[in-house]
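Input sequence (202 aa), recorded before submission:
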Amino acid sequence: MNTVHMYQDLMKRVRSRFDVIELLRISEGESFTRAESAAFQGRKIVEGIAYACLIAIEHGAQQIPRDAKKHWNAEKIFRALKSKGFDTLPSPSVIRPATERERADGHTIVVEGISENRLSHDQIAEIYQRLHAWLHEANPYVYGSTGAFGPDKTDILWKDLEKLKTFVNRHFISVQGEAIFCTLWDLNDNQTKVLQLSKLKA
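Predicted structure, token format:
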């Protein structure tokens, strides 16, 4: 499987996790159980984002650091990549047709970033840590009851999951001029799609 197909396969799983999260959000089950189930999916989504960075690096640089490749923990993957000089992350973006001036410069399409939807490595790590707290049973000696675990934590959870969704819904990821654009829910047929792109060299 080449890197583009690998990326698409990974993003299909990420999208399916968001679909499950949405079903949990709108269902009528007990709120605490729905939240902790959604958090489990959210943690796997963050790990999927980390793996997406590895695939993008292999796609652009033709190799990935061996110490990053062996990890499953998202924070460890990001730390390993940063130690090797890779600050790679998806960039929330849209694709638009080139203007006349841009076409004159040789562009056919333009990828525009959506800065307000971006997340930094630190922000992703903080979300990952908050999601982890949901993976353990609420200690009755600490919280007394599941209700005491906190409506505030539940509100933050759903906001964190929405931030992740906005972050990767439509994104561009590039390493050394080789890039992938991905949409999790295509506007025409609702499918997950990726497009291989190369930056125009001056």
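Checked by second reader. The chain has a mean pLDDT of 89.
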